[in-house]
Amino acid sequence: MITQKIKTMLTVAALAFSGAVFAFESEKKVQKADDLKLWYSSPAKKWEQEALPLGNGRIGAMFFGGVESEQFNINEKSLWSGGPGSMENYHYGNTAGPGGHVASLETVRKKINAKDWDGAREAMHALRGTQQNMGAYQTLGNFYLDFGGTTQVATSSENAPKETGAMLLDNNPNTKWFTGAENNAPFWVQVNLTEARALPEYSFTSANDSPDRDPANWTVKASNDGKSWAVIDTRSGIDFPHRKQELSFTTSSKKAYMHYRFEMENNKGTEMQLADIGGFKSPDSGKGGISHYCRKLDLAQGTGGVRYTKGGINYSREYFVSYPDNVFVIHLKADKPGSISFKTRFDFAHKVSSSVKEGVVTSSGTLKNKLQHETQYKVLASGGTTTEHGEGIEVAGADSATIILTAGTSYVDVYPDYQGEHPHDRVTKTLAAATAKGRQLLKATHQKDYKSLFDRVRLNLDQKPQSKPTNEQRASYNGDNRALERLFFQYGRYLLISSSRKGTLPANLQGIWNNSNNPPWTSGYWYNINLQMNYWPAEMTNLGECHLPLFDFMNAQLVPGRKTAAQFGAKGFIAGHGQSIWGKTGLSHYFNAFWAPAGAAWNCQHIWQHYTFNQDKKFLKELGYPIMKEACLFWVDFLVTDPRDGKLVSSPSFSPEHGRHSAGSSMDQQIVLELFENTIAATEVLGVDAAFRDTLKAKLAKLDPGLRIGHWGQLQEWKEDWDNRGNKHRHVSHLFALHPGRQISPALTPKYAEAARISLNARGDGGTGWSKAWKINFWARLADGDRSHRLLSELMKHSVMANLFDTHPPFQIDGNFGATSGVTEMLLQSHMGEVHMLPALPSKWPKGSVKGLKAQGNFEVDIAWDEGKLTSATVRSLSGLKPVLRIAGVAVGSDDKRITCTGVK
Prior knowledge:
The chain is an alpha+beta fold. Helices cover about 25% and strands about 25% of the residues. Strands 2-17-18-19-20-27-24-23-22 form a nine-stranded antiparallel sheet, with helices on one face. Helix 2 (about 100-115) runs antiparallel to helix 3 and helix 12 (about 600-615) crosses helix 14 (about 665-685). The chain is globular.
């Protein structure tokens, strides 16, 4: 422990108190129609629903905005458990022995051909992969700034260092206080405040484990001297029916106290656990001496922040995570000199060794899988004193202060070990360079980088200024708030910029934000829609650079993916459903979802789209086409002749995540068809592999396209006419050909388009968040803007939380990205080789404009409309190609007076 006191009166120009004027009018008075801010009048209490996200593709942060104590949940995207370092003979998800799955595969195919569906289902178990040591995305921990002292928690006993009493006040139901098996009653928790406060209401949140450990009976006592106690509440026979469930209770006291003690008995046994005690966080705006409170996320600037008035002093905080400098920056200031005082602390989710040297706090650790990680931060204060205390920093009486934080791991995406050098040198250099640069230059560099992406697209829906905080707008949303819809569209673009940048891992199931070491579905990469949906808006909303991490990830899967393909007697590569960062290309274990062999082929659609939107032949030649070819090699070998009609089919085949295992399910066939078509086109663009092109053409001529109309007019989900009109399943996989595929369109294939419409109507408008988001896109492709908008409304009303995160439930980010894609599909489509403007404009948006959307062919498009009709448009050809134009379903020429075309050679 280091106790040296460092007295500093820093005069670093970049950090000096600027004397800025604080504008603390109510947010509702300054809100403008074109504002792109999420804002709230109170601090967040819950990570998933209320905290706000910041990120740069590597480092993620969720901030709560507390007044007494600010909390940041921190992530480093490569911090994963599992993988080769976690066990000997790690199999990358593969389960077959030397002979592979060839014999088992043949058994399944024979049973399918004999229509022995029960036998086929039983035989499929032999093909399952394993999730063993797949691992899960980990949280780094919670970083705190405690203002004016720290609320202390004392307990009768605890399972240190992982399940301590401090976790009772961290707003995280995934962490808990646990006494440990060796500890016996009595059990108690004492909360010691820094200033007296009444406790009219409190809450308990049950933990994740056995209900026998829940508190069932307890007494709440209060004191101002810690000696003399008054009973303010007693409970008995309380039951928590569910894990991680919050129950609230009122007390009989209105008096303010400094100390509160909870004396508890559990249901039975010798152990006690509890996830959270609520009631001790900062008061809401306008209470307890706090006024003019505002917590916001500014999408236009790429920054977050908090402001409030306390004791007549105006406080302001600003947060951002810089991609160019790879640091998280926190800046604190007040309009009265000497008013900034706080202590830092970092509650890590894993065991670390920490030290403080020359004002830099360094914390290093190694996970059980040998993955090394390090976090460093430095506090720079203008004025006052800065003191090293234990494993943190204390600032007293400063005019302003800046904290610069960075983190890294030893992970590298290289088979077979995925381990590189210890991150210490890299993290140290990053922090030193950022510190030398100073806050103002860090911010300027961050915003130049961020705005170069975000500012490309501007959407105007003729929206009206909104005077309510974002959470209130969402709660009262009834399908008629264009400002909120516009904000939600741009929020998806913000989240993609923040979670997927060149040189980083792809956006995962939660983008980059995760507060658990056991997150839902491992917060991994799921290949039967979720990962693909993350990148639907990338090209069309002019964020092609954010697409690149997906392609690097796919390229790194080639080597392990070949080994998985070989288990099925095929060349090339595949990657099964359920991926980690550890090259786990083997299939997953969960029976109702494990069989999804077309996932890598679906990803290849994204490669081709990146080329068609940008016309980048170098990318296609060096990275894109080699991956596409490897995917094709697998399917050339894997496809078999269907004895029913002689067509080539995928067998076994499955439609996620329901129904029978059969041959030629629609989704597989549609994906493989598009893979072959796109790869043939790529060989022609590059002028390569003529013989392989002929092989693909021959296979394509025999391929079952996966399009057929069933007995009630529906587009069939399986080759057999099995569809049930009452099926409301969330997956609508057989409509891949409509979206994101291109085989179905109202103009060119009206019969199939009508069959898709019948299928969608039968499926209904319900489902999980991501399912509703997919349906927004479906209806836009069917040129039904009002139905598309209805699905957007359903999503926002029922599957979006106060912080505008999509919920499955729980939180999954794919719904956010799918919705942004869907809004774009209403305004511009180009998948059929045309620049189709306003193909599905909803009547709810009679007037508006959009600038900077992208169309295939490398066209950048601006559109304006009024009374539901296009008034003007500009199409900029960035590669010199001539666009084929269509407006609201009607083909038009380039001589149309409403349209200006530029850049055409």
